């Protein structure tokens, strides 16, 4: 799971509730001091929440963007039903559309999904068309089902959810994995180990968030990570300006998979070599700089380019 480096919202941000046609969603919203260059909607991944983006709120607001990080239904502070059918990709994608429409943004809206959130936002684009959004960012999210090594861990979790409560599973996870980490460790090509543990406050938050997540959400999303089809060709046909951003090591979707996905999408590709699966939490300043540069290039003031020409480069910041 993603571990935020801290929990205190910056001065530019506040916790809010967004009321939509599909229910109310807990969000963190950050606003720039001047007129926004646009709005960014950030969608978290498996076992995550809006707090996964807390460290990028201020640098993105400083870059001129209004930023809204949401919980998906059934995550942390956004309620969801005890019905697995409520957590299919199509249902979660409809939530993203509803939140987008409720934002009432006067400027362009840039859509970002982290990890499983990337599968949700691409479903939103494919099922509802790209007209609502100026760009799409797939952050540490791949072309299809996750790698087999990580899939084995997800199968274990899905099986445990059928037999045990969340507290029992949490304690077992901590015995197997140790405490969460703040430093991704390692270098490209190396295994990313658990390194420095989080602060006690963050560790307590991760526990509290886990217990607040609807179990049916976890089980349904876990199954989807194991079975997601390759929809890259469909997304490429949409022709939407796209950024594929990741760390230099990723156990869910290996980095070469994301490199190839970016090529197929004719997308801009950015790799932060020292980062793992959550560059947004591990290297927030560099992640925010890459996002803002991409959004600047796809906003209304950018030179007119065909969608497939907006990006296409491979950047591996030092």
From TrEMBL:
One of its GO terms (biological process) is glycerolipid catabolic process. Keywords: Hydrolase. SUPFAM superfamilies: alpha/beta-Hydrolases. InterPro entries: AB_hydrolase, AB_hydrolase_1, AB_hydrolase_fold. Residues 41-290 form the AB hydrolase-1 domain. Pfam families: Abhydrolase_6. GO terms for molecular function: triacylglycerol lipase activity. It comes from the Bacteria. This is Hydrolase. It comes from Wenjunlia vitaminophila.
């Amino acid at each position: 799971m993603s571990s935020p480096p801290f929990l205190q919202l910056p001065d530019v941000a506040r916790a809010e509730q967004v009321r939509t046609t599909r229910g109310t969603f807990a969000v963190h919203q950050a606003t720039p001091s001047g007129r926004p260059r646009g709005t960014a909607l950030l969608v978290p991944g498996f076992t995550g929440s809006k707090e996964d983006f807390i460290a990028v709120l201020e640098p993105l607001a400083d870059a001129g963007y209004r930023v809204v990080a949401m919980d998906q239904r059934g995550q942390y502070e956004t309620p969801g039903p005890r019905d697995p059918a409520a957590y299919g990709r199509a249902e979660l994608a409809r939530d993203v559309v509803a939140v987008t429409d409720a934002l009432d943004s006067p400027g362009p809206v840039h859509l970002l999904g982290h990890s499983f959130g990337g599968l949700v936002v691409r479903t939103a684009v494919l099922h509802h068309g790209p007209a609502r959004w100026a760009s799409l960012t797939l952050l540490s999210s791949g072309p299809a089902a996750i790698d087999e090594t990580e899939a084995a861990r997800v199968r274990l979790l899905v099986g445990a959810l059928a037999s045990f409560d969340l507290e029992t599973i949490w304690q077992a996870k901590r015995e197997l994995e140790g405490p969460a980490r703040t430093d991704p460790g390692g270098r490209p090509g190396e295994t990313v180990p658990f390194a420095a543990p989080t602060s006690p406050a963050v560790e307590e938050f991760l526990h509290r968030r886990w217990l607040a997540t609807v179990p049916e959400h976890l089980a349904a999303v876990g199954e989807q990570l194991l079975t997601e089809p390759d929809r890259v060709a469909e997304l490429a046909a949409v022709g939407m300006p796209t950024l594929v951003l990741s760390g230099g090591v990723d156990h869910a979707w290996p980095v070469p998979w994301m490199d190839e996905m970016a090529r197929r999408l004719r997308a801009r590709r950015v790799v932060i070599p020292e980062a793992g699966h959550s560059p947004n939490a591990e290297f927030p300043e560099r992640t925010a700089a890459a996002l803002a540069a991409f959004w600047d290039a796809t906003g209304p003031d950018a030179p007119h380019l065909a969608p497939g020409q907006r990006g296409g480069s491979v950047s591996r910041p030092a």
